[in-house]
Amino acid sequence: MAxxxxxxxxxAQVLHTGxxxxxxxxxxxxxxxxGATAESILSLSESLPHPAFAYLAPQANGNQWYxxxxxxxxxxxxxxLSSSFAVIEAVLAYVEEAGISSERIFLLGFxxxxxxxxxxxxxxxxxxxxxxxxxxxxxxxxxxxxxYPGNLEGTPVFLGCSDIDFHIPKARVIETDHILTTxxxxxxxxxYPKMGHTINDDEIEFVRxxxxxxxxxx
Length: 218
What we know:
The chain has helices spanning 38-42, 80-97, 112-123, 170-182, 201-216, and strands at residues 14-18, 26-31, 53-58, 105-110, 130-134, 156-162, 186-192. By secondary structure, it is an alpha/beta fold. It has a seven-stranded mixed β-sheet with strand order 1-3-2-4-5-6-7, sandwiched between helices.
Protein backbone atom coordinates (compact mmCIF):
# COMPACT_ATOMS: atom_id res chain seq x y z
CA MET A 1 0.00 0.00 0.00
CA ALA A 2 1.17 3.48 -0.82
CA UNK A 3 -0.63 5.20 2.07
CA UNK A 4 1.41 6.24 5.10
CA UNK A 5 -0.16 4.81 8.27
CA UNK A 6 0.52 6.83 11.42
CA UNK A 7 1.10 5.44 14.90
CA UNK A 8 1.71 1.94 16.24
CA UNK A 9 0.53 0.15 13.07
CA UNK A 10 2.85 2.03 10.76
CA UNK A 11 4.13 -0.28 8.06
CA ALA A 12 1.29 -2.79 8.51
CA GLN A 13 1.50 -5.61 6.00
CA VAL A 14 -1.47 -6.89 3.99
CA LEU A 15 -1.83 -10.51 2.89
CA HIS A 16 -3.78 -11.41 -0.24
CA THR A 17 -5.38 -14.52 -1.68
CA GLY A 18 -8.06 -15.25 -4.26
CA UNK A 19 -8.31 -13.22 -7.45
CA UNK A 20 -5.68 -10.62 -8.34
CA UNK A 21 -7.14 -7.17 -7.71
CA UNK A 22 -7.06 -6.27 -11.38
CA UNK A 23 -9.22 -9.31 -12.16
CA UNK A 24 -11.50 -9.29 -9.11
CA UNK A 25 -15.16 -8.48 -9.31
CA UNK A 26 -15.32 -7.99 -5.54
CA UNK A 27 -13.03 -7.78 -2.52
CA UNK A 28 -13.34 -8.99 1.06
CA UNK A 29 -11.22 -7.19 3.67
CA UNK A 30 -10.74 -9.52 6.64
CA UNK A 31 -9.70 -8.20 10.07
CA UNK A 32 -8.20 -10.62 12.61
CA UNK A 33 -8.77 -10.74 16.35
CA UNK A 34 -6.53 -10.13 19.35
CA GLY A 35 -3.55 -12.47 19.46
CA ALA A 36 -4.29 -13.75 15.96
CA THR A 37 -2.76 -13.00 12.57
CA ALA A 38 -3.69 -11.90 9.08
CA GLU A 39 -2.80 -15.41 7.96
CA SER A 40 -5.28 -16.97 10.39
CA ILE A 41 -8.24 -14.80 9.37
CA LEU A 42 -7.31 -15.17 5.72
CA SER A 43 -7.61 -18.95 6.11
CA LEU A 44 -11.34 -18.36 6.66
CA SER A 45 -11.52 -17.57 2.95
CA GLU A 46 -11.30 -21.33 2.37
CA SER A 47 -14.77 -21.57 3.93
CA LEU A 48 -15.97 -18.52 1.98
CA PRO A 49 -14.89 -19.36 -1.56
CA HIS A 50 -16.17 -17.27 -4.45
CA PRO A 51 -14.55 -17.02 -7.89
CA ALA A 52 -15.13 -13.26 -8.13
CA PHE A 53 -13.43 -12.35 -4.85
CA ALA A 54 -10.00 -11.16 -3.84
CA TYR A 55 -9.36 -11.52 -0.09
CA LEU A 56 -7.12 -9.05 1.76
CA ALA A 57 -6.11 -9.19 5.43
CA PRO A 58 -4.02 -6.55 7.21
CA GLN A 59 -1.69 -7.54 10.05
CA ALA A 60 -1.75 -5.66 13.35
CA ASN A 61 1.64 -4.94 14.86
CA GLY A 62 1.96 -7.05 18.00
CA ASN A 63 -1.02 -9.15 16.86
CA GLN A 64 -3.52 -6.79 18.49
CA TRP A 65 -5.26 -3.70 17.19
CA TYR A 66 -5.57 -1.98 20.56
CA UNK A 67 -4.44 -2.97 24.08
CA UNK A 68 -7.53 -2.82 26.30
CA UNK A 69 -11.09 -4.13 26.19
CA UNK A 70 -13.35 -2.69 23.51
CA UNK A 71 -15.60 -1.63 26.41
CA UNK A 72 -12.84 0.48 28.02
CA UNK A 73 -12.79 4.28 27.64
CA UNK A 74 -11.87 5.04 24.05
CA UNK A 75 -8.92 7.23 25.01
CA UNK A 76 -7.35 4.28 26.87
CA UNK A 77 -6.95 2.50 23.52
CA UNK A 78 -5.29 5.41 21.78
CA UNK A 79 -3.15 5.94 19.74
CA UNK A 80 -3.58 2.30 18.67
CA LEU A 81 -7.25 2.67 17.83
CA SER A 82 -6.78 5.61 15.47
CA SER A 83 -3.81 3.85 13.89
CA SER A 84 -5.97 0.76 13.37
CA PHE A 85 -8.68 2.77 11.67
CA ALA A 86 -5.99 4.24 9.42
CA VAL A 87 -4.97 0.71 8.39
CA ILE A 88 -8.49 -0.14 7.25
CA GLU A 89 -8.79 3.21 5.52
CA ALA A 90 -5.50 2.58 3.70
CA VAL A 91 -6.62 -0.89 2.56
CA LEU A 92 -9.89 0.55 1.29
CA ALA A 93 -8.02 3.28 -0.60
CA TYR A 94 -5.67 0.69 -2.10
CA VAL A 95 -8.61 -1.39 -3.32
CA GLU A 96 -10.47 1.62 -4.69
CA GLU A 97 -7.36 2.82 -6.50
CA ALA A 98 -7.45 -0.54 -8.30
CA GLY A 99 -10.86 0.44 -9.66
CA ILE A 100 -13.07 -1.43 -7.18
CA SER A 101 -15.80 0.77 -5.69
CA SER A 102 -17.00 0.52 -2.08
CA GLU A 103 -20.21 -1.19 -3.28
CA ARG A 104 -17.99 -4.13 -4.29
CA ILE A 105 -16.09 -4.28 -0.99
CA PHE A 106 -17.12 -6.59 1.86
CA LEU A 107 -15.64 -5.97 5.33
CA LEU A 108 -15.48 -8.88 7.77
CA GLY A 109 -13.97 -9.10 11.23
CA PHE A 110 -13.85 -11.57 14.10
CA UNK A 111 -13.60 -10.71 17.79
CA UNK A 112 -11.38 -7.63 18.23
CA UNK A 113 -11.33 -7.41 14.44
CA UNK A 114 -15.14 -7.40 14.41
CA UNK A 115 -15.24 -4.56 16.95
CA UNK A 116 -12.76 -2.58 14.89
CA UNK A 117 -14.60 -3.25 11.64
CA UNK A 118 -18.02 -2.32 13.03
CA UNK A 119 -16.75 0.88 14.65
CA UNK A 120 -14.91 1.84 11.45
CA UNK A 121 -18.02 1.28 9.34
CA UNK A 122 -20.14 3.34 11.74
CA UNK A 123 -17.63 6.21 11.65
CA UNK A 124 -17.21 5.98 7.85
CA UNK A 125 -20.77 5.18 6.85
CA UNK A 126 -21.39 4.84 3.10
CA UNK A 127 -22.62 2.09 0.80
CA UNK A 128 -20.44 -1.00 1.14
CA UNK A 129 -21.02 -4.35 -0.51
CA UNK A 130 -21.46 -6.00 2.87
CA UNK A 131 -20.28 -6.02 6.49
CA UNK A 132 -19.98 -8.96 8.89
CA UNK A 133 -19.12 -8.57 12.57
CA UNK A 134 -18.57 -12.02 14.05
CA UNK A 135 -18.46 -11.89 17.87
CA UNK A 136 -18.08 -8.13 18.14
CA UNK A 137 -19.80 -4.79 18.74
CA UNK A 138 -19.27 -1.05 18.60
CA UNK A 139 -16.33 0.25 20.62
CA UNK A 140 -16.52 2.25 23.85
CA UNK A 141 -18.04 2.03 27.34
CA UNK A 142 -21.75 2.16 28.08
CA UNK A 143 -23.10 5.62 27.32
CA UNK A 144 -20.60 6.39 24.54
CA UNK A 145 -22.19 8.96 22.17
CA UNK A 146 -23.21 7.32 18.90
CA UNK A 147 -23.89 10.39 16.76
CA TYR A 148 -22.23 8.99 13.66
CA PRO A 149 -22.27 11.01 10.43
CA GLY A 150 -22.92 9.47 7.04
CA ASN A 151 -25.34 6.81 5.88
CA LEU A 152 -24.81 3.13 5.08
CA GLU A 153 -27.44 3.44 2.33
CA GLY A 154 -28.85 -0.03 2.79
CA THR A 155 -25.53 -1.86 3.21
CA PRO A 156 -26.23 -5.47 4.26
CA VAL A 157 -24.79 -6.02 7.76
CA PHE A 158 -24.59 -9.32 9.62
CA LEU A 159 -23.95 -9.60 13.36
CA GLY A 160 -23.40 -13.04 14.85
CA CYS A 161 -22.55 -13.77 18.49
CA SER A 162 -23.17 -16.15 21.37
CA ASP A 163 -25.57 -15.21 24.14
CA ILE A 164 -22.84 -16.06 26.67
CA ASP A 165 -19.72 -14.76 24.93
CA PHE A 166 -17.25 -13.92 27.72
CA HIS A 167 -15.76 -11.04 25.67
CA ILE A 168 -18.83 -9.58 23.98
CA PRO A 169 -21.96 -8.74 26.01
CA LYS A 170 -25.20 -9.63 24.24
CA ALA A 171 -26.54 -6.16 25.07
CA ARG A 172 -23.72 -4.53 23.08
CA VAL A 173 -24.55 -6.67 20.01
CA ILE A 174 -28.20 -5.60 20.24
CA GLU A 175 -27.15 -1.95 20.65
CA THR A 176 -24.87 -2.27 17.62
CA ASP A 177 -27.79 -3.63 15.58
CA HIS A 178 -29.88 -0.61 16.61
CA ILE A 179 -27.18 1.94 15.88
CA LEU A 180 -26.17 0.52 12.49
CA THR A 181 -29.83 0.31 11.50
CA THR A 182 -30.22 3.95 12.51
CA UNK A 183 -27.35 4.96 10.21
CA UNK A 184 -28.94 3.15 7.27
CA UNK A 185 -27.70 -0.43 7.47
CA UNK A 186 -29.86 -3.41 6.57
CA UNK A 187 -28.92 -5.41 9.67
CA UNK A 188 -29.43 -9.10 10.41
CA UNK A 189 -28.47 -10.26 13.91
CA UNK A 190 -28.29 -13.86 15.08
CA UNK A 191 -27.64 -14.73 18.72
CA TYR A 192 -26.58 -18.35 19.25
CA PRO A 193 -27.30 -20.09 22.57
CA LYS A 194 -24.18 -21.18 24.46
CA MET A 195 -21.93 -20.97 21.38
CA GLY A 196 -18.99 -19.31 23.10
CA HIS A 197 -16.41 -17.13 21.37
CA THR A 198 -16.11 -18.74 17.95
CA ILE A 199 -17.56 -18.85 14.43
CA ASN A 200 -20.19 -21.44 13.54
CA ASP A 201 -21.43 -22.99 10.29
CA ASP A 202 -24.62 -20.93 10.23
CA GLU A 203 -22.59 -17.71 10.26
CA ILE A 204 -20.38 -18.99 7.45
CA GLU A 205 -23.42 -19.94 5.40
CA PHE A 206 -25.04 -16.55 5.94
CA VAL A 207 -21.90 -14.67 4.92
CA ARG A 208 -21.59 -16.87 1.84
CA UNK A 209 -25.15 -15.96 0.87
CA UNK A 210 -24.34 -12.26 1.32
CA UNK A 211 -21.28 -12.64 -0.89
CA UNK A 212 -23.30 -14.38 -3.59
CA UNK A 213 -25.95 -11.64 -3.63
CA UNK A 214 -23.28 -8.95 -3.67
CA UNK A 215 -21.34 -10.56 -6.54
CA UNK A 216 -24.53 -11.00 -8.55
CA UNK A 217 -25.11 -7.26 -8.42
CA UNK A 218 -21.63 -6.06 -9.46
